[in-house]
């Protein structure tokens, strides 16, 4: 099963991706996670990526495409995938089509989690991450028991540079360039719009209906 997960930052893609992976057994391929691992590595590529991520700008297509191409070569991706964060432009979508044509593995569905922008701004600026274990919290929706401290491991919580108000606004503006993708996949009959402002369980219920239909 080859599935693409799309939506603006803060739409809840990460939460739904975890559930999809657990329930349907396909690996979650997130360009965001791959980018952050590269940044942590301190390599030349990582340093280049950091400048884009910290400012909220989109990573250039040629860099993103190469990262994804390398990920598809890994063993777990041979049985299917949930692609999150790619493609974000029509150029990337065309590059993905070429890659998947070569692999003879067409896209089965594109899940579009739709959330209004004012809701996204509130969601993203309140997000906090544990420096130690990576657990995610929210100052409003999922606060830790003790402010600034991870419930799971006691690590320090921090706000990512790309979650500040200024960076989030830039990210949302940049992601408007992804709008043509929605029409691109809708015109191909692959797009399934999921309302992301519903309770998390209801969002996953709607997602599961689509994926179960694909499985047959």
TrEMBL record:
UniProt region (LID), positions on chain: 126-163
Can the keyword Transport be found in this entry's annotation?
no
- Per the UniProt entry, what are the Gene Ontology biological process annotations, in alphabetical order? AMP salvage
Keywords of this entry: ATP-binding, Cytoplasm, Kinase, Metal-binding, Nucleotide biosynthesis, Nucleotide-binding, Transferase, Zinc
Q: What class of enzyme is it?
A: transferase
Q: Where does Zn(2+) bind?
A: 130, 133, 150, 153
Query: What are its E.C. numbers?
Result: 2.7.4.3
Report one GO cellular component: cytoplasm
Question: By its UniProt entry, which Pfam families does this protein fall under?
Answer: ADK, ADK_lid
The record's subcellular location field reads:
Cytoplasm
Reaction(s) catalysed by this chain, per the record, are: AMP + ATP = 2 ADP
Say if the entry is tagged with keyword Nucleotide-binding.
yes
Q: Subunit composition?
A: Monomer.
Extract the HAMAP family matched here: Adenylate_kinase_Adk
- PANTHER family according to UniProt: NUCLEOTIDE KINASE (PTHR23359)
Q: Which family does it belong to?
A: Belongs to the adenylate kinase family.
* Description of its domains: Consists of three domains, a large central CORE domain and two small peripheral domains, NMPbind and LID, which undergo movements during catalysis. The LID domain closes over the site of phosphoryl transfer upon ATP binding. Assembling and dissambling the active center during each catalytic cycle provides an effective means to prevent ATP hydrolysis. Some bacteria have evolved a zinc-coordinating structure that stabilizes the LID domain.
The protein depicted here goes by the name: Adenylate kinase
**Lineage of the species this protein comes from:** Bacteria, Bacillati, Bacillota, Bacilli, Bacillales
């Amino acid at each position: 099963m080859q599935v693409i997960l799309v939506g603006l930052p803060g739409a809840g893609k990460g939460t739904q991706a975890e559930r999809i992976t657990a329930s349907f057994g396909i690996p979650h391929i997130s360009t965001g996670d791959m980018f952050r691992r590269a940044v942590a590595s301190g390599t030349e590529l990582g340093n280049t990526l950091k400048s884009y991520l910290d400012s909220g700008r989109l990573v250039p297509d040629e860099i993103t495409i190469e990262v994804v191409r390398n990920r598809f070569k890994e063993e777990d991706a041979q049985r299917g995938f949930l692609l999150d964060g790619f493609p974000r432009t029509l150029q990337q979508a065309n590059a993905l089509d070429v890659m998947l044509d070569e692999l003879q593995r067409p896209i089965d569905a594109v899940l579009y989690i739709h959330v209004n922008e004012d809701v996204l701004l509130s969601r993203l600026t309140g997000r906090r991450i544990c420096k130690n274990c990576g657990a995610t919290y929210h100052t409003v929706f999922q606060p830790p028991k003790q402010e600034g401290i991870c419930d799971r491991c006691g690590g320090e919580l921090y706000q990512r540079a790309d979650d500040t108000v200024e960076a989030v606004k830039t990210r949302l503006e940049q992601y408007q360039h992804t709008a043509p993708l929605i029409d691109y996949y809708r015109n191909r009959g692959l797009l399934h719009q999921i309302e992301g402002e519903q309770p998390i369980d209801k969002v996953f219920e709607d997602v599961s209906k689509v994926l179960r239909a694909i499985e047959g």
